[in-house]
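From the shared-data thread, chain only:
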Amino acid sequence: MSTPLLRATHLVKEFPVMGTGGVLRRPDTFRAVDDVSFEIDAGDTLALVGESGSGKSTTARLAARLLDVTSGTVELDGEDVTALKRSDLRRFRSDVQVVFQDPYSSLNPRHTVERIVTAPLLYQQRSIPGGARAFTRALMERVGLDPDHSQKYPAQFSGGQAQRIGIARALAVGPRVVVCDEAVSALDVSVQAQVINLLRDLQREEGLTYLFIAHDLAVVRQIATRVAVMTQGRIVEEGDRDAVFDAPRHEYTRKLLDAVPRIRPEWEAARRRNAALTAEGAR
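Structure, as tokens:
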């Protein structure tokens, strides 16, 4: 059996919170992620879904080593990366990149697109193939942006275009895994579809692996290979995309599906047929 490209095992993340006794009282802790495990094979997409506060974005940041774990491990291609020091993290950052929710807040407003896109390579202390200008233009064209706009600033782009800049920045170092943390949730529906199509094209052509964080199940259905449903810091259901959508096992998953009006009618019909058959078999 092949080793998953990205594996998280028994992840726990606790944050200190001040108790009601005031500043002199020893702080309590809040467990945002509680014993979460998952695996993603190379070239696949695992979607972590759940309502706001479910712990999915914190889990994503643990997997990307933007946060340190309280306990548990993160492995990339079989190597435990949980305790990597600063120098070794540079190598990890080449393999795992993040596309954030709000493109404007994640892009430096004082930097041009060229400087933004080439910054990860400079951090990696790597040369820029063909020079910064040619490298940026090629990446901009790759993500569907006009290469002639490489000297513009983030505020001069629409939200969808700014998110494409974020995707270009993530691609600059040639990652194997891209963590998309609510990467399309701030975009209009039509723009969401365009960015999802771009991500799917990039996955097919570059062999990328995605950890996709979302609360919109209609979006998840378009891109995910597998789905893991989170609530209160735990994964309560995981499985192949169609199995989770058409025959959810956990009550929380069923509630999530019932609450989303944009699920396509044919998906909803299939889910209701499976639910009816399950109920009939239980009688």
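The radius of gyration is 20 Å.
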